[in-house]
Inverse folding.
């Protein structure tokens, strides 16, 4: 080693330390994100994804004094699904198609807008949407609808690097917020309606170089492949379009996977179709799988299991246990041991008739309905991707629901053609000619009425799986949920109301009509001593705080 | 639109008696399909009528005049699913004589139903409706116009039917005329609200959410109510619309349905 090399070698740790010290958000801060409740540092608020905040300024006694502080109107008429990040006095959001906007969280005024030029080859199934960002150091990370991962400078909004994650012309897209673990940025790909072969992949945060990739549909040389027949796996789906969670003690990151392809014609893909509709526990350093649990084997109903995994540490039969709580689109609420993937408990939280129950291992006892008879829950599920919440204070799990909602499923032979829809279904509402609530944007008039679906929020006790309370809504509920240390629960809904409930009883404490459907989760943060709560509705982001 | 129906009358005069208006036969088929979709006799008939006027010049009355295509035999060049069939009819096939057809949803449902069941469909039993006669029934003996408007002309007690031909399939219209209460869409169910001070409001529900409901009442006033102000709010399963099963004969029903299917809204 020559002198200059030796000097560089000796200085390297110092340079790294210096970089870390100057960095805005360190890996260490992300590990303890919930301990700095003035910020909102990850998509789900913390690695445990509880969407629970320790802030206490707004409480049940004063929540009625919330007033509008500012509105940010997105420059897009697409669905507005972003969850903001709030980092040391700056808010970062995304707006369709793939803009990043830095805002003053006290006024809603923008510092800068970064515009990403989306490829016309992009063809996301269900709207040109984006759900938010991840941050590490001074760098923001965004997954794009044309399946690229982009790094953006958090100070001035300039792109630092961009890598192609998958081919958009083949139906791959990305709509989720990335997850940063240590020095890696982890994403998954959407495209389950296009017969893609799903995967989760990690990239070095500094360079964008791919670190690992885990295919959610195993090839002939990988374990799990025997759950497929012939070449069906090649277009087997298992898309990953919601952000995962992370347990630092176990060093495992958890990700939910979507439907097998084609969505509805299960006769075309015999077998359990691993690892569709599953949760995967991966080593974030290598991408190696430690365990999996499949919720809906051989699924003909599009019961994506992409819900955000909620991690909770709680007593289980007298002993502390690392739990994973999961309100699944298939209508069952699951409790798993997140160390091993062992099934602990599972019960329906909405009307279910596709299965009569779960066996001792959590496998559904399938009860397929005869042709022409509705299956419950319907295509959009008993819930969908809307973020749930868990309050360590109440010990309850809260999830938005679609109630009494069914679909008459009809499988149809589908032919795979790259980049075109590969769903294999001709599904209808239970009432001929009636509108059925769809998964896309809803206008201001509800024409399907309670005859076809209602919704709400349910509070579930993980120990028993039973409902503690239910807040009924006339319409289905597409909102995420936030709980706080003052036992408040904030939730929107498709009707455009934003509500504060008592997290212990479900009683309505405050509401405001924002005039547009809520398809995202609320967040809370504190700046200059004032606690704010924000929510997107329609095409705008609204910020509330207590009246002065 | 009138031209089409006139042409239909001329081209399909072979109508005789039949069991057409007994409740819908559920027909068959679905090659390579996991579970067969349902096709209804009334939709098949409607499709047959459209086929006779729009398709036979190229495809022939038996649907087998284009090489490689034989509808009766279920033989297509590109079509696998019903959605493919709808897309081919709507978009045409570039580079061929197959032009795009601007059909509405009910027409497409009829076409698909007919093409999928051409081999078993017996056109000899077809009752062909006359839209002009149906219009006269709508205003006269059928008494429909005492509740329903068409494009704003008439009362608002029941839904305006100006675009009903694009909203409902032939099968659904038929069922509604035979058994209106059973076929009534959820949004059209009448409601009764009683305020806490005893005021009764009967009307047709326009919209509802968790906290409020919007109506048009019997006096055709737009009313918005807050649920916490109500003592009673009932959604009725009954309807003032009578069944036409015994009020109109099969030909009259076919005429009325032909008229309703011709209502495509104001362009």
């Amino acid at each position: 080693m020559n002198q200059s090399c030796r000097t560089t070698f000796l200085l390297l740790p110092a340079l790294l330390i210096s970089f870390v010290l100057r960095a805005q958000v360190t890996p260490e801060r992300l590990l303890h994100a919930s301990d700095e409740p003035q910020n909102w540092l990850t998509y789900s608020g913390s690695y445990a994804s509880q969407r629970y905040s320790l802030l206490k300024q707004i409480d049940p006694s004063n929540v009625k004094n919330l007033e509008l502080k500012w509105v940010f109107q997105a420059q897009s008429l697409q669905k507005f699904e972003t969850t903001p990040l709030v980092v040391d006095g700056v808010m970062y959001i995304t707006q369709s198609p793939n803009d990043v906007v830095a805002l003053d969280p006290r006024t809603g005024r923008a510092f800068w807008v970064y515009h990403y030029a989306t490829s016309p080859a992009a063809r996301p199934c269900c709207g040109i949407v984006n759900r938010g960002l991840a941050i590490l150091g001074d760098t923001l990370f965004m997954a794009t609808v044309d399946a690229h991962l982009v790094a953006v400078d958090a100070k001035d909004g300039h792109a630092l690097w961009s890598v192609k994650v998958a081919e958009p012309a083949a139906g791959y897209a990305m709509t989720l917020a990335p997850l940063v673990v240590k020095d890696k940025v982890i994403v998954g790909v959407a495209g389950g309606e296009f017969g893609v072969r799903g995967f989760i992949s990690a990239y070095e945060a500094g360079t964008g170089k791919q670190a690992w990739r885990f295919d959610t549909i195993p090839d002939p040389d990988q374990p799990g492949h025997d759950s497929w027949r012939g070449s069906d796996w090649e277009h087997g789906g298992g898309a990953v379009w919601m952000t995962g969670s992370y347990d630092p003690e176990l060093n495992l990151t958890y990700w939910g996977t979507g439907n097998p392809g084609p969505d509805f014609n299960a006769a075309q893909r015999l077998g359990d179709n691993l690892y569709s509709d599953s949760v995967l526990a991966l080593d974030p350093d290598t991408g190696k799988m430690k365990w999996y649990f499949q919720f809906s084997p051989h699924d003909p109903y599009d019961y994506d299991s992409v819900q955000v995994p909620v991690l909770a540490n709680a007593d289980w039969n007298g002993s502390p246990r690392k739990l994973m709580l999961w309100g699944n689109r298939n209508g069952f609420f699951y409790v798993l041991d997140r160390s091993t993937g062992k099934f602990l408990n599972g019960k329906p939280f909405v009307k279910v008739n596709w299965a009569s129950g779960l066996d001792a291992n959590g496998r559904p006892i399938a009860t397929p309905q005869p042709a022409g008879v509705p299956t419950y829950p319907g295509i959009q599920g008993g819930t969908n991707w809307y973020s749930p919440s868990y309050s360590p204070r109440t010990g309850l799990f809260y999830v938005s629901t679609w109630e009494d909602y069914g679909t008459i499923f009809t499988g149809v032979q589908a032919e795979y053609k790259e980049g075109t829809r590969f769903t294999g279904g001709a599904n209808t509402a239970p009432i001929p000619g009636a509108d059925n609530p769809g998964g896309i944007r809803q206008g201001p008039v509800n024409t399907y009425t309670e005859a076809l679906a209602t919704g709400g929020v349910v509070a579930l006790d993980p120990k028993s799986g039973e409902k503690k309370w239910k807040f009924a809504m006339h319409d289905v509920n597409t909102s995420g949920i936030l709980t706080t240390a003052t036992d408040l629960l904030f939730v929107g809904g498709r009707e455009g109301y934003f509500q504060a409930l008592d997290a212990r009883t479900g009683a309505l404490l405050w509401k405001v009509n924002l005039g547009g459907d809520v398809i995202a989760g609320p967040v809370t943060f504190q700046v200059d001593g004032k606690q704010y709560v924000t929510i997107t509705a329609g095409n705008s982001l609204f910020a509330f705080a207590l009246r002065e | 639109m009138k031209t089409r129906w006139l042409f239909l009358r001329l081209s399909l005069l072979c109508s005789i008696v039949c069991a057409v208006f007994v409740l819908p036969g559920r027909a068959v088929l679905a090659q390579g399909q996991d579970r067969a979709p349902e096709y209804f006799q009334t939709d098949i008939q409607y499709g047959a009528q459209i086929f006779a006027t729009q398709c036979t010049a190229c495809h022939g009355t038996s649907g087998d005049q284009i090489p490689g295509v034989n509808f009766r035999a279920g033989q297509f060049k590109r079509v696998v699913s019903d959605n493919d069939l709808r897309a081919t009819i709507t978009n045409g096939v570039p580079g061929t004589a197959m032009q795009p057809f601007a059909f509405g949803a009910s027409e497409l449902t009829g076409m698909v139903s007919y093409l999928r069941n051409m081999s078993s469909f017996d056109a000899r039993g077809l009752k062909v409706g006359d839209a002009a006669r149906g219009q006269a029934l709508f205003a006269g003996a059928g008494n429909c116009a005492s509740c329903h408007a068409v494009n704003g002309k008439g009362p608002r007690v029941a839904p305006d039917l100006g675009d009903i031909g694009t909203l409902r399939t032939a099968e659904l219209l038929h069922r509604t005329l035979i058994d209106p209460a059973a076929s009534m869409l959820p949004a059209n169910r009448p409601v009764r609200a009683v305020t806490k001070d005893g005021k009764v409001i009967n009307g047709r529900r326009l919209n509802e959410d968790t906290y409020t409901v919007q109506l048009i009442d019997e006096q055709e006033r737009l009313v918005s109510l807050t649920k916490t102000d109500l003592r009673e709010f009932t959604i009725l399963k009954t309807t003032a619309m009578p069944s036409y099963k015994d009020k109109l004969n099969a030909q009259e029903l076919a005429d009325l349905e032909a008229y309703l299917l011709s209502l495509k809204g104001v362009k």
